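In response to a reviewer's request, we include the raw inputs and outputs for one of the modeled complexes. The two entities were modeled together in a single run.
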Amino acid sequence: MEYRLKLPVSEKDILKIKAGDIIYIDGLVVTARDEAHKKAIELYDAGHELPVNFSEVAVFHCGPIIKRNEEWEIIAAGPTTSSRMEIFEYDFIKRFRTRIIIGKGGMGKRTTEACKEFKAVYAAFTGGAGVLAANAIKRVRDVFWLEELGMPEALWVFEVENFGPLTVTIDSHGRNLTEEVKERARKNAEKITF
Amino acid sequence: MKFEDAIADLIADAVINLPRDVEKALQKAMEVEEEPAKTQLKAILENVRLAREQKKPMCQDTGTPIFYVEMGINFPFKHDIKDSIIEGVRKATKLVPLRPNAVDVLTGKNSGDNTGLFIPYINWEITDGDDCIITVMPKGGGSENMSTLKMLKPGVGLKGVKKFVLEWMVEAAGNPCPPTVVGVGIGGGADIAMKLAKKALLRKVGERHPNKEIAEMEEELLNAINSTGIGAMGLGGKITVLDVHIEIAHRHPASLPVAIAVQCWANRRKSIRIDKEGKIWNID
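The model returned the following structure tokens for the whole complex.
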């Protein structure tokens, strides 16, 4: 199935999405890589307020190239490898109740558990497709933690329109497509003799 | 034209325009694939087209700047090349722009201009003649993270080498942005195998090693990896690798080093030749 979703999304919207579906989204997407995940969790646990309401946006594993003209110009903004965020994602989703996580390469067991427990999905944007992504980003609404974390690691708040295609690989029902593919590939590899 | 400007242009060309042989291989993959891999390959090809049209880097990870220099022994401007490469990287970072990707290991601070200790990294080779060939390989981090080295027991033989490469590429799965190109270096020593593996990535997709036995091993591994079904972006499909390139060196009797260098679909590489008059030529 293919869906176009407007953020923020409801639990009902998330429940109907199945692994393998394609989604396109409109609304606010916020970039967060390793450092931003870590910092967000630490600030939350210390009782501080965060600059972004992560429950209403999609979190995007992305370290963009942005040029500072009079306004911010987005040059390229494809996804980064999500498996690096696996160590943070369960705790992140648990605290912030983010409903859509976007990245590439798939995520592991803990994230699959979080998606099931807190009703969220993980969707893959085509890795390396930095210009395609940039074209769907209409504007940089805000940026936080830029000075401290640098361009790739900062929280960039993007207004996006028809952002996709995003292939859902982890749904809220416990399925993890990339892990299934990997499991099958292991079995296929075992059969090969040189 | 100043050499540093030619280097900046070379980098810009590399990060914006995917080599045609790679694009053709991706096109062919798209034609044989089914969903969901087809959607991924369509997006990749659309992205390649947009990058070329809008003169923007095809991927936000513009990589670590790796250079290969073949310097003629009688090339008159030997002294200028190193500084021109470093200055060219700085210029390209500003002009293209590139993402600053050079981070201090101790402080974690990003230098901001893609230069730093040993970066840009330059592989030097002295050749006969009076010209100089410079190749840039902007190497992405996601695929580099899936590169590896293993010192195998010589007793496992070439069968063991092939098994290691196959199993490794299955575990790498969608992480290095498949369909990838895989460089394999066998023999020499740890450092030599890795150098060979990475340099093998410069070969064109579809180009076989001149040694028939190695060429056969390349084909065998290509088919084996593709038959596992990892597919584009690890979502399942027929094409996981566009090609496998192998290079070998004689080994120590006690060692069988095998290095794997993985390159994402954005298999970026471009070369120029500078002649003895200082004139610059694009070469394919």
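As requested, we also summarize the result in words. The first strand of chain A starts at residue 2 and ends at 6. The mean pLDDT of chain A is 96.
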